[in-house]
Specification:
With 324 residues, this protein is of the alpha+beta class. Among the domains are: 104 residues, no CATH class; 83 residues. 54% of the residues lie in helices and 10% in strands. The strands form four sheets. It has a four-stranded mixed sheet, covered by helices on one side. A three-stranded antiparallel sheet has the order 6-5-11. The protein has a two-stranded antiparallel sheet with strand order 1-4. α6 packs antiparallel against α7 and α10 packs antiparallel against α11. The longest helix has 32 residues.
């Protein structure tokens, strides 16, 4: 997993409060634990919310609607013909080292295992004694320099390093801060002041869904998140409902989700959600009906697990694939 080193600083859509917006650069789901509501826990794939609440003005907003107030600027270098010369030099240098390494290894093999190549060895002994010391230096020189040149082969770091050392402009910038440096100083100061984007609570999700405007795609996202937050209580060995109103909110949320997904029942990934919604609503017969029509071979194991839970009369979320 790799998270952006420099998060963007975004601004609340209603006030001047600032937030850190981290982004994932790379991730994976190796050793992840998957649940029957198709939520998961993966140490290499943290989940970031798309909506948050500003604690300064008490307004909700989607991150996609927020203005990017400031972000880190990366230094860009102008084209330099020395860069192309350097690339050509690296190509030739690495190729030469490879040839020297092959020759050097051949000498060593011939020296220690001469019977492989020659039957009469007397005339070769003098030659090997003279060459062996030089060959030893050449072998380790090829290994060391070949390794480091391979590590930085065609690397921007070499170009930037050489340009920094030999460019008058860069030497001046050692003593005078340029525009980019000043910008990034401001960025660091604002980043320290910015708040982390937090998840909404169950009560905040319910309030937002009842009182705010959103489109259908946003509603699907919000209601799925709310569903997963409720089920997180079960994963943490807590009671699913803390009040009668809590139960009504949970059930009405799932019923609305079923309506939102009713036009997509031909899609296998939607069916995975639908059968679990029915099971969480204690509608086991409907769940089994959906399961029986599901034939996607990649999810036969999940189907069997949910079918067994239906027969047991269990309506709570379960693990369908255990992480290591």
């Amino acid at each position: 997993m790799q998270i952006s080193r420099y998060p963007k600083v975004i601004k609340c859509t209603n006030c001047d409060n600032l937030f850190k917006n981290f982004e994932l650069i790379s991730w994976n789901t190796i050793w992840a634990t998957f649940y029957s509501d198709w939520s998961f826990y993966a140490s290499m794939l943290p989940k970031y919310t798309k909506i948050t609440k500003c604690d300064e003005c008490w307004q909700y907003f989607f991150k996609e609607d927020a203005e990017i107030f400031i972000e880190h600027k990366y230094r860009e270098y102008e084209y330099d013909p020395r860069k192309e010369k350097l690339y050509k030099f690296i190509d030739e240098f690495v190729f030469t080292l490879m040839i020297l390494l092959i020759i050097s290894i051949s000498f060593w093999v011939a020296y220690y295992f001469p019977h492989i190549f020659y039957k009469d060895l007397s005339f070769l002994n003098y030659i090997y004694k003279i060459l062996i010391f030089a060959d030893f230096i050449m072998l380790w020189g090829a290994i060391i320099f070949g390794y480091w040149s391979g590590m930085f082969y065609k690397s921007e770091k070499i170009v930037e390093f050489l340009k920094y050392k030999f460019s008058k402009k860069q030497q001046i910038e050692e003593y005078e801060e340029d525009e980019i440096d000043l910008h990034n100083k401001d960025y660091e100061e604002l980043l320290d002041k910015a708040e982390s984007i937090r998840w909404l609570t169950i009560e905040e999700y319910v309030y937002f869904l009842k009182n705010w405007k959103y489109n259908l795609n946003q509603e699907k996202y919000l209601r799925r998140d709310l569903w997963h937050l409720y089920n997180k209580r079960v994963k943490n060995w807590e009671n699913l409902f803390q009040s009668d109103e809590d139960k009504l909110n949970y059930e009405s949320n799932l019923e609305r989700l079923l309506v939102l997904y009713k036009d997509f029942t031909d899609e296998w990934d939607t069916r995975l959600l639908i059968w679990e919604m029915y099971r969480n609503l204690w509608e086991f017969d409907e769940c089994i009906k959906v399961l029986e029509g599901f034939t996607h071979e990649d999810y036969i194991n999940e189907k069997e697990i949910i079918l067994w839970e239906c027969k047991k009369g269990n309506a709570f979320v379960v693990i369908v694939e255990e992480g290591k």
